[in-house]
Amino acid sequence: DQNATVDKPDKSKQSEENNEDSSEKQSEKEKEFIDTMNVSRGNESLVVRQDVAALPNNFQVNFDTSLSLQQINLSDSDENNAPVMTQLSHSLSEQLRLILNPTKASSLQGDFRTGKRLNMRKIIPFIASDFKKDKIWLRRTKPTKREFQILVALDDSSSMADNKSRSMALQSLNTISSALALLEAGQLGVLRFGESAEVVHPLHGQWSQSVGHKIQNQFKFDQKKTSVISLLQLTTALFHRQRSNSSTQTALSQLLVIISDGRGVFHEGKEKVIQSVVNARCAGYFCLYLIVENPENKDSVLDIRQPVFNSKGELEGIHSYMDSFPFQHYIILRDVENLPSTLSDALRQWFQL
Questions:
Q1: How many CB atoms lie within 10 A of CB 148?
Q2: What are phi and psi of 54, to 5 degrees?
Q3: Which of 174, 182, 189, 183 is nearest to 146 (CA)?
Q4: What pLDDT, on the 0 to 100 scale, is given for residue 165?
Q5: Do 263 and 194 meet the contact criterion of CB atoms below 8 Å apart?
Q6: 234 to each of 5, 22, 49, 51, how far by Cα in Å?
Q7: For residue 261, what are the contacts with CB-CB under 8 A and spacing of at least 6?
Q8: What is the pLDDT at residue 99?
């Protein structure tokens, strides 16, 4: 008979492995969070739609009658020279063409007994029927023109320059305005806001490439404050005036696009800012906040934390700044190349409301 030999396990190796496993488990338990502060976020952009409370019943919209609705005097400065992103503008224009449907009836169609223009194809059947088939007139009932009113507001505060967002903001402004002009979306206006909000280009003004170049040079990015309340009050007043002066019976579609770094929104008081946002929602226009963020920055707006106090003034905790961001729809844009897809996604949500 052959003797079978069996290797006995080394108890010392087993004990070492058990010690390593237990030490790893203990270290995992000791770690309460994973360090992500220095991890790069890349160039990926975000489109966010927050859940907000329903609008209160019988809410009275407040209009500030002390605001100046007139255009500022444009300077002849040539300091900013952000290029017009032609390819991006065309791409954004085609994306918006699928979303911003025509609202104004300007083409003739239909078969009517009365009208202002004859349908020549119906004349012969009209005569052949012994003048009984008398629906031979055309009316302007086919929507082919867009009649939107869109305001683009650009943050003119110094934080835009400090956070390296200046060039991205100007490129975004040029791309959006050029795309809307190509699409003939309707009326386009430009605002700037810092310590207060001002009209740089009125809604009724004609848009061209030379006008766009002059407008971008009205932004110095040197204002010390960012007044969101002033911006929303001015926008509400401008849109209200346009609604009052409108001769059309159909409801106007009005949109405000805010381009900013998203920081310091609550410096005028959280409750006051939230009240202004609710007032804007009740005024009936859609507000989209476009946060431009340079990927080269060490910190992101998503990294900002702020203390939260209760009614007694006691600290309840440190929460994320974006968790209490007052605007329902916002985009965090880290690459201008992503602007056509992200902006079209956000506006598609507007029409789904």
A1: 19
A2: -65, 150
A3: 183
A4: 85
A5: no
A6: 92, 63, 24, 26
A7: 155, 159, 160, 163, 165, 169, 291, 292, 293, 301
A8: 82
What pLDDT score was predicted for residue 145?
A: 64
**Three-class DSSP category at 94:** helix
Query: What's the pLDDT at 299?
Result: 81
- The Cβ of residue 76 has, within 10 Å, a number of other Cβ atoms equal to 6
Angle at 292 between CA 83 and CA 33, to 5 degrees: 145
Three-state SS sequence of 114-141: CCCEECHHHHHHHHHCCCCCCCCEEEEE
| Mean pLDDT per 10-residue segment, the chain (353 residues) | 50 56 56 58 80 76 79 77 77 87 59 68 72 68 70 92 83 91 88 94 87 89 91 94 72 87 90 92 92 85 86 85 92 92 87 64
Rounded to two decimals, the pTM is 0.76
Cα distance between residue 36 and residue 272, in whole Å: 33
Residue 333: the pLDDT is 93
Using CA atoms, how far apart are residues 287 and 277, in angstroms rounded to an integer? 9
Q: Is the dihedral of CA 240, 242, 244, 247 positive or negative?
A: negative
Specify the pLDDT at position 279: 92
Query: Residue 133's pLDDT is what?
Result: 72
N-terminal to C-terminal alpha carbon distance within the chain: 87
Question: How many Å apart are CA 268 and CA 232, to the nearest integer?
Answer: 13
Q: Element (H or E) spanning 111, and its range? A: strand 104-112
User: What is the rounded (10 degree) CA torsion for 155, 160, 165, 167?
Assistant: 70
| pLDDT on residue 142 | 55
Largest CA distance in the chain: 122
What CA–CA distance (Å, rounded) separates 307 from 113? 70
